[in-house]
Amino acid sequence: MPVFESLSSRLQDTFxxxxxxxxxxxxxxxxxxxxxxxxxxxxxxxxxxVKTFVAACKERCMSAEVLESLTPAQNVVRVVLDELTTLxxxxxxxxxxxxxxxxxxxLVGLQGSGKTTAAAKLAYLLKTQGRTPLLAACDVYRPxxxxxxETLGGEIGVKVYRGDGKKPVEIAKEAVREAIDxxxxxVIIDTAGRLQIDEVMMQEAVDIxxxxxxxxxxxxxxxxxxxDIVNVVQTxxxxxxxxGVIMTKLDGDSRGGGALSVRSVTGKPIKFISTGEKPAAFExxxxxxxxxxxxxxxxxxxxxxxxxxxxxxxxxxxxxxxxNQGMTFDDFLAQMKSIKKLGGVAGLxxxxxxxxxxxxxxxxxxxxxxxxxxxxxxxxxxKEERQKPKVINxxxxxxxxxxxxxxxxEVNNLMKQFDQMNKMMGKMRSAMSDGNGKKKGRxxxxxxxxxxxxxxxxxxxxxxxxxxxxxxxx
Length: 474
Description:
alpha/beta, Rossmann fold, 434 Repressor (Amino-terminal Domain), 8 strands
């Protein structure tokens, strides 16, 4: 599901209408800004934030630089992108940890915001970065809260300290001592929440803060909450003075009001976002990348970073072998598994410029069932067929189709896609080597690749990329 789907769709439609015009008049800008205002208000963004945002966009869009340019519509989109990035925080705000033992991170927030799950995801992220975190179960009121944290900790291999399960302040202090004794360099404290703010909850948070003096206090905010969250974050900011926000449930039906309001109203940065149920679906928040995704411009940088994090030495060697010798169906299967780790078909499409529109045109039905069917076809092949696809003749295709429970034309389509990918790899192989089979230098490789893509006439235009993706989805 695209991030802030309804808001994103409304804004993209507004800019599509502008692109259909040549030069823009003052009235065109007024109409566009009116649409932007309505889109933000419908997303439940705080009305003061909307007023300031639209005024800033309108002032810049009315400049001669925009109205008298040869591409005014593109400049309007650029203005909105810049202002949206500023609204979300301009630049990323990373979690700063020292080398002392332990660093203490305290999580606060209302009940139901996903605080306990966020604590475990943060622990998992820090563990992948070489840290040795300890989770402290200080929510002694919600039934089975400590059990939930211990279960999550077990899944990611992180120890959970529960203490006596009765006194939150003492549990927090003992967890810090436990971390010191066992050389664990981060303690993540999961505090209690309530369905609404009350004095008892706030005072307990203050007491824990005073007792352990955390290095960072992060407030967990449910992104599905609209501008009502503004009063909540303001109260927490006044009482415990938190350092940043973890925005959860961005994979849900979020309107975006809370996320777009919290930074402007409180001055506190969004540090992390949670985009799914799995421990790895938790990442550093990049305002510029989020703004681009909301405006339908994709986020390829994040996908590339995830891919780099997933690729191990064995995969790197396999990729080099494929480039040199061609792809087999076993390789094809391995690549599909890698795509699933990167968020599946929908996740990759949403990261492509215009990908949200492709998903919308498909009725929002693009999911990993396509890859599941492809996997079934490949698994119905013999070992020889997977390694040497050229042996797959008509009778073999019929047998594979029966084994996978699909029609023969679906097997034929897969074979066609497979051949196209191997042809692409052949051209890449030719571009990256000289006539004697030796690899070119890096500069020569890049120049050859640019020439090859130009000669293919292929992916330079985004419309071509979208068309290719539609073909793959058939």
